[in-house]
């Protein structure tokens, strides 16, 4: 995938170092901290979280 993306002349792709790719929760928390420090406010999210979504309720694409 990286080879194909790197071959595309119209886009710039940036890859984080592997040590920053191990915990998605940490990345989400960091993004939230950056939004908070920039004072980006959202009154009400347009989605709801479902942390224990059973896989048998999902359909294949």
Description:
This protein is extended. It has helices at 2-6, 24-37. It has a domain at 1-37. The longest helix has 14 residues, at 24-37. The protein is mainly α.
Instruction: List low-confidence stretches.
Output: none
What's the N-to-C terminus distance?
A: 20 Å
- Write down the overall geometry: extended
| Portion in strands | under 5%
**Roughly how much helix do the residues carry, as a percent range?**
25-40%
Mean pLDDT: 81
Number of strands: 0
Number of helices: 2
Structural class: mainly alpha
Biggest beta sheet attributes: none
Order of helices and strands: HH
Radius of gyration from the CA trace?
A: 17 Å
Summarize the structure.
This protein has two helices and no strands. It has helices spanning 2-6, 24-37.
Index terms:
mainly alpha; 2 helices; 61 residues
